[in-house]
Amino acid sequence: MAEALNFEKAFDVEGGNFQNAGNVSGQIKGILKELGVSTDIVRRVAIICYESEINIVSYAKRGTITLSVTDEAVKIESKDEGPGIADIEMAMQEGYSTASAAVREMGFGAGMGLANMKKYSDHLIITSELGVGTCVKMTVMNFQKMLHPDLPPFTL
Amino acid sequence: MQLDVLVRELGLKVHCAGRNLGREVTGGYVGDLLSDVMANSKEGDIWITRQVHQNIVAVASLKDLAGIVLIHSCEPAPDTAAKAEAEGIPILVTDLPAFEIVGRIYALIHP
What we know:
The complex is a heterodimer.
Chain A: E1 6-14, H1 23-34, H2 39-59, E2 62-70, E3 73-81, H3 88-92, H4 101-105, H5 113-119, E4 123-129, E5 133-141, H6 143-147
Chain B: H1 3-10, E1 13-16, E2 27-30, H2 34-40, E3 45-49, H3 55-62, E4 67-70, H4 78-87, E5 91-93, H5 98-109
């Protein structure tokens, strides 16, 4: 039997730096491909990771995105030092945004970020404290592996 | 259909990564909202947009899009062009508005 997969890596994201926005997501996508994670899961993680990265760049001073991969799931944790979210329920609604005009001008801040993160993950938890920051934990499950435990990791 | 066929048939100006015009275009997506494109475009799509800043390269690269078409003769910003060249993402420019170029691309892909 193949050895169980257990990979973890954290990436720093600089707030306000749109020049490098997407770099962390690109690196994470590369790692997942290298680990042999299935295309569908890579595609979903790329979306939630990019939205997390853009949220940190758009709103926070700095943040960290942590990737962890096991046979059963890919997890993304996005933790930032930022303004926090006053009303999480409102923020989760598609179309709601507090983004600045400059951020909207670039085609961000349409109120789709958190909605996409929820849509493309199987599980999402947000905790936030005003003036401190926000933490979003997302899980994309590898259901094929759970249904067929004998399958080698992620070779679906 | 290969990207170079679209370039030839529609008179697109090749701005970046001309070395990758052999890519296969399997569909298309139109949009200026990056989250929308990120969520809904598919691998192999040609992306029609008027955004010129360098984040379009990150989106196209993350989604494995075939290339980007800028409408209304929009030029990519210098850092966008540099990043697209480095990452091998073709950026093509048309003088047509989105509606016109999308109609023509659609007709070529779905004859």
